Recover the amino acids of this structure.
């Protein structure tokens, strides 16, 4: 397992469960909709840098930072629309703009994940990632609706913490220097 | 007795030092022809304002030009295709052996107390200490602290 320090990204929406959501969409024979990397949901293109941010001291001379950055700046993979391996009939990922064009608000089917979790008998705190993924992908596969949206404000259906043991999660949260000091 | 030089047929007829410029030109032509279609850098659009950080409009354009963004594709893709948009954002939190974490944090605090005092004495001494005890040395910059006082 790769040892690396993951910053607390609690204020960044849609950060670390994209790959797992893509996997669920793939298992459900659906196209994953990828959104830009978002720090701020307002209409403005740029946002002010906070005083306590790590960018406050040095940001290439800029006093602002972009509110949204396209996801292809970070990733080039099936999550951002690259083709699946040859022979895979599943649809490729589409962008947020395409989703808004093809599926307007009136045609979207909004799903409250907490309600569906109760209906499927999933306990997020105790269940394994395998059961969560199989149950959710089966549910989404059987839905006779083109435009399915997991509702804003409800819980994530999967997270990176669900696919790790407790020791892995602990290792993801600490740095190498911390382990060295602990062993000292 | 065989001579040290190669036979006339195998000898190179190209004098490199004399024909350096055409050789370099050929090399760059070869690089240009073989690199056709590889996006090396993301182009910056001329209408972008240089006094603001980049928004990567070229990448957005490339996203728009993806082959799956077409209306007339067969079923799983195209106009009536099946999509899944995940805008649910609340994090799944799990409690992991909290007693172990508390003990670990306590030990780390005790160790960092010692190291902070060591750094306060002198950088050279503390780096010596770190080398002898086979541990990493943490250099804490004071830029942020100065900024806060000002």
């Amino acid at each position: 397992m790769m040892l690396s320090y993951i910053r607390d990204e609690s204020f960044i929406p849609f950060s670390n469960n994209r790959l797992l959501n893509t996997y669920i969409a793939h298992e459900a024979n659906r196209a994953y909709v990828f959104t830009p990397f978002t720090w701020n949901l307002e209409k403005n293109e740029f946002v002010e840098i906070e005083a306590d941010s790590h960018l406050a001291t040095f940001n290439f001379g800029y006093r602002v930072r972009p509110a949204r950055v396209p996801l292809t700046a970070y990733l080039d993979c099936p999550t951002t629309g690259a083709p699946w391996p040859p022979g895979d009939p599943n649809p490729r990922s589409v962008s947020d703009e395409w989703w808004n064009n093809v599926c307007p608000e009136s045609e979207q089917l909004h799903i409250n994940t907490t309600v569906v979790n109760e209906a499927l008998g999933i306990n997020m705190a105790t269940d394994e990632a395998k059961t969560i993924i199989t149950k959710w992908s089966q549910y989404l596969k059987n839905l006779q609706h083109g435009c399915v949206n997991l509702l804003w404000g409800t819980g994530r259906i999967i997270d990176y913490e669900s696919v790790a043991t407790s020791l892995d999660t602990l290792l993801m949260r600490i740095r190498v220097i911390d382990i060295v000091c602990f062993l000292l | 007795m065989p001579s040290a030089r190669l036979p006339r047929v195998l000898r190179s007829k190209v004098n490199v030092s004399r024909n350096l410029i055409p050789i370099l030109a050929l090399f760059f032509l070869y690089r240009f022809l073989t690199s056709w279609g590889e996006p090396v850098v993301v182009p910056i659009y001329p209408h972008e304002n240089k006094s603001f950080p980049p928004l990567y409009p070229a990448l957005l354009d490339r996203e728009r030009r993806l082959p799956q963004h077409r209306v007339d594709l067969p079923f799983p893709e195209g106009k009536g295709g099946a999509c899944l948009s995940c805008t649910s954002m609340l994090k799944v939190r799990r409690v992991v052996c909290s007693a172990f974490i508390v003990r670990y944090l306590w030990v780390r605090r005790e160790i960092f107390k010692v190291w902070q005092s060591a750094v306060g004495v002198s950088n050279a001494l503390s780096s010596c200490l770190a080398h002898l005890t086979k541990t990493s040395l943490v250099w804490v910059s004071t830029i942020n602290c100065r900024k806060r006082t000002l």
Notes: Residues 1-14 of chain A have pLDDT under 50 and may be disordered. Chain A touches chain B through 76 residues (CB under 8 Å). The beta strands of chain A are 31-34, 37-38, 46-48, 64-66, 68-69, 94-95, 109-111, 147-150. The radius of gyration of chain A is 19 Å.
